[in-house]
């Protein structure tokens, strides 16, 4: 307060020229920053893999997620973005719960889920080896076990992981209150060494079980709750997340549980929790990931068309995939 304002019209011609030069320099600097922020241009090839998995969740309907996302014009939108090759591998067959037997109440259908995840891992591995960027469509979040295993095998090293979710998904059969495997994929993937805790980031948490709190602490995983997003802002959260998960080109897997978004924008999920990531915060995060050039694979999970309103949650998933792959407003 009280600092003298620089007087505006006091310039000689020289002062005017100096101002113009400064302004020009500022413009050049900001243009360069803009260029530096923009990562590699849009990828050449993506591989779409559907996994109509609903064995990991209690609510029925997430098995229809891959159909809903395709119905929301995923392929056409990817092509319109300039991606030359869009390979859709169809869906991996998943047994319906009625045909499957439950082996243990602590981790319902786990052997069948792991068998499906093995098939998914093989598809994802091949896609990465073929130079594609995998886009995996769930299905409940247990499919991340397969996606991450496939990426790990193809890369020969652990990818960075940005996990966007209302929940921690880091329960084990011993800590899970429900026995639903979609609450365990992060714990299983860490145990499999498909991902490393120090390059894993959780974003959007607001419903975390007691055992998960302890697991997050014990693993030393960086977790940004909704409170952190409120206080720091999504821009800072995602920049920090990128720094932790990895800054190498295409080194980060984005595992997007649509229940991370606020239910007012993403009503079609099995386990909605109010107070979530806003529409613009979600886009900002995906745009920042694209600008950094770090996205190597994407999965969107937990879309439940039965609970949705006119497919808007699947449409939002397509929008977010596009933002993560480089779509910008201008
Ligand atoms: Mn989840």
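-> sequence recovered:
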């Amino acid at each position: 307060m009280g600092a003298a304002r620089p007087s505006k019209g006091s310039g000689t011609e020289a002062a005017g020229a100096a101002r113009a030069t400064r302004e020009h320099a500022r413009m050049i600097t900001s243009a360069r920053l803009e260029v530096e922020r923009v990562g590699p241009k849009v990828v050449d090839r993506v591989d779409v893999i559907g996994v109509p998995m609903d064995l990991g969740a209690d609510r029925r309907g997430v098995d229809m997620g891959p159909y809903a996302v395709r119905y929301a014009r995923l392929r056409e939108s990817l092509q319109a973005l300039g991606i030359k090759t869009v390979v859709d591998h169809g869906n991996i067959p998943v047994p319906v719960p009625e045909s499957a037997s439950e082996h243990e109440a602590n981790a319902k259908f786990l052997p069948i889920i792991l068998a499906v995840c093995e098939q998914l891992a093989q598809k994802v591995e091949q896609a990465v080896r073929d130079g594609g960027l995998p886009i995996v469509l769930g299905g409940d979040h247990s499919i991340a076990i397969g996606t991450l295993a496939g990426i790990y095998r193809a890369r020969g090293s652990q990818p960075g992981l940005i996990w966007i979710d209302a929940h921690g998904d880091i329960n084990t059969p011993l800590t899970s209150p429900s026995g639903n495997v979609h609450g365990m994929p992060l714990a299983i993937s860490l145990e499999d060494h498909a991902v490393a805790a120090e390059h894993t980031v959780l974003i959007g948490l607001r419903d975390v079980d007691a055992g998960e709190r302890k697991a997050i602490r014990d693993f030393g995983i960086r977790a940004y709750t909704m409170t952190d997003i409120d206080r720091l802002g999504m821009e800072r959260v995602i920049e920090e997340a990128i720094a932790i998960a990895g800054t190498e080109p295409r080194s980060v897997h984005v595992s997007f549980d649509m229940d991370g978004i606020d239910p007012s924008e993403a009503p079609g999920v099995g386990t909605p929790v109010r107070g979530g990531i806003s529409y613009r915060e979600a886009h900002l995060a995906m745009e920042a990931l694209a600008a950094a050039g770090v996205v190597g694979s994407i999965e969107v999970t937990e879309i439940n068309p039965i609970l949705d309103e006119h497919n808007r949650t699947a449409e939002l998933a397509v929008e977010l995939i596009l933002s993560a792959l480089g779509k910008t407003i201008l």
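The longest helix spans residues 13-37.
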